[in-house]
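Table S2 (continued). Query chain:
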Amino acid sequence: MSVIDSISRMQNDAVERLRAGDHSEFLVGFLTTSLMLELSNLLTADLQLVDYAQAVVETMTQHAPLDRCMLGLDAPGLPPVGATIGFDQEFVQGHASLPDSPDRGAINVEGTVTGTLYADHIPGPLRQAGFMQLAAGQIGEGISRIVEAERERRRGAVARALSVVALLGGEWGEHSLQEIAAALASLPDATGGSVSAQAARFAGTITATDGRPSPHTVHRQFLIDSRIEVNVNVHHVTEPKAEHLARLDEIVGALSSALNRIEQNIRLLSEAETDQLTGVGNRRRAGKALAAARAMADRQNLPMAVLLCDLDWFKRVNDEFGHEVGDKVLVAFADLLQRSVRAFDTVTRWGGEEFLVILPTCDQADAVAVAERLITECPAANEPNLPAGIRQTVSIGVALYPDTAASPEALIRAADDAMYQAKREGRDRYRAAANI
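Corresponding output:
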């Protein structure tokens, strides 16, 4: 057994003996000394202020016979910091009003930070030894360095956020948003930040968060290239000042401009992935959307679904009424598909009169609901394009990943088989692929 293991065992034994009522002077002295050493070690761990505060209360409850402990810190120019085990946050926020008592240790480093270390049900011998006051004094010895490092980090947050935004490229995604969220959480007087974006090419919503929520949330929202919705939230303990809102708006403005520029370039490139007649995606876009939806399904442990739709008797429409009418039917059905799905779902023309719909994070019940709606609404959507009495219907195959197929290729085959089963059974209906 190493020396560190031996000391750790001695500390644990001392805590348990004090809990059991052994109040010997040696135990009190040993426990107090060992805890002061543990608190001193935290000062060298290069922690952010909020993480340091939480580490303090965890150390107090691990290395002393305390079930509940809290630390509240107030430093000029920084958001209040509260860390707790066992107490609620409202109690921590009111730490400055707690009366002087043996259960309370006051921290007061002039011009730098004030605070309160508090616990209840402290064993009598520890209380008599001024345990909480000694611990608070140990915290005050080195906290100035942590507070100043926190101020320095926050002073650079705006520049850091703008730098991240300036370096965004065409492959921006969750990693980029995480960097921005971290910069937002470091803004002066902020405790946390989040950024989310919703678009079809992300196969849903991607979200990044950093820090922790607080009572006052500043929300900003904007659209990128009229297609991608971005939401930005920054959390504050108190109502943010005008200067803080101005810094946030500067960052959001830069982010909006950068993402609009990037997305416009992506849109130009995506024209090669668009079916020119219907305006929906082509097979190239379908391949990318399938890969993105599968990656999200694997990452979030959620299903994804596809619908393979085939317009019934479409060859007769072309032969009897001409290709111009046939094209109108294709466009009308593509419009119906796009109206019937979510913003981050992907509609593609798979070939001829076949359309593939990719539904990320969608279970079988929801996929079947979409299929039923399409079957019901298809005739009405095409009624203006066809002579009276001609009813355009659709057959649909539904397949689910990973239940009915283990890969995108197998998923398409399963949907195709299910769609042809619907054709064989009379058309104007859907069929779901069997589970593997």
